[in-house]
């Protein structure tokens, strides 16, 4: 039976003002998994009304009560793990392994947000007048507009609202059209069931054809004070432009073209396993996925042989099968897009070491290429699928130059047994995140997460995330 979900506004499930709905399709079966309400501008305004009305009371709730609620929500999310596994497979083809990791990390994001609630929120400042007092106080901003993607829906949906809410703001969340439940309504249910007051978290789902109008209406609303968006660089530019036009700060977490550098002193077993994980986890549909494997020429032959054998053996198919590593992509359109990138590279002279070939519906084979050059679309374009490019280098300088030869700057992995050498290379790579002796994928909620260059700006995580969703006020007390 198909699930139907309405919008979540002011704690109530409400249909769209004009009654429209949109299908949420299972990419593996091609069947309709759910239908959701398709919001228009009136619904967006209703959601902001609710968030704005809830703000003063929520901001005044004791931090200890806010902390307890977020901790209860984390436990509830853990208890609903199996429901999340079904949703993630049904909406976006996520494997069970990936879904369980999503639950684990999303629950930890809630716990980290809970911990942030009782951290000090200000400083005492020097004051000009004798006996006077100056305070710098961090306070919530009001209504936050949040946009979440489908690829790690529980993690990135939760990230979009957890810290803003913990800081005392209220939120209007626009989940991805490819995972409206897992990146939005399912999470909001968890928070609601944990006792979140009505209006603190509102969810507007939409028809993809209305995305631009919905986003613009939300960002333009004068009651919205900060925007966060996780998605592609292309749409990030549009969201950032709207935010700038309305003078609203934005956290933009965008695309990547991440390198995994394998230095010549790497432990090869570790390098092969780590690289396979970093490239192919969630079929390469992670912003931090390794698109490019840069391997020292001294070890390139052995690394390549072992890596290609491993990739060719990765189980592919039904996301519900617990063994599956390469599940379907989010939709057949995405599989065709990835296939076109591979075809373009092959036609222009690249060598396919494993994989390639046409997709089967939304399933694209795990693919490794070499000989990819700048005139091929894959050289600079984000694959966002189970595809990586192998290149060699002869020196650390050359590895750094190749890693930096991209408009993106999200993350990088440097696999080496030599920590000093790894850190030296890490400091020269222009990305927001670097993992030494590891691959490129890693997210921990206490750490500053975000990119440089076209991968966006602003940070989620830790105190950096709190700063993004609070404003600092200067308050003075004069003596008489
Ligand atoms: P996307 O940018 O294609 O879509 C994001 C959302 O943008 C959609 O849900 C859609 O509603 C909205 N949108 C589309 N057109 C719009 C328009 N004209 N105006 C306003 N909104 C519009 O991204 P996606 O497919 O959901 O996610 C994949 C991308 O996200 C990849 O590039 C990936 O690297 C990136 N990503 C980044 C991070 C990070 O933390 N840096 C994390 C996950 C994904």
TrEMBL record:
Which residues act catalytically here? Answer: 253
Q: Which UniProt keywords apply?
A: NAD, Oxidoreductase
GO MF terms listed in the record are: oxidoreductase activity, acting on the aldehyde or oxo group of donors, NAD or NADP as acceptor
What the entry lists under Pfam families is as follows:
Aldedh (PF00171)
InterPro entries found in the cross-reference section: Ald_DH/histidinol_DH (IPR016161), Ald_DH_C (IPR016163), Ald_DH_CS_GLU (IPR029510), Ald_DH_N (IPR016162), Aldehyde_DH_dom (IPR015590)
Q: Which residues form the Aldehyde dehydrogenase domain?
A: 18-475
Source domain of life: Bacteria
Q: Which family does it belong to?
A: Belongs to the aldehyde dehydrogenase family.
Q: Which PANTHER family match?
A: BENZALDEHYDE DEHYDROGENASE YFMT (PTHR42986:SF1)
The protein, known as: Acyl-CoA reductase-like NAD-dependent aldehyde dehydrogenase
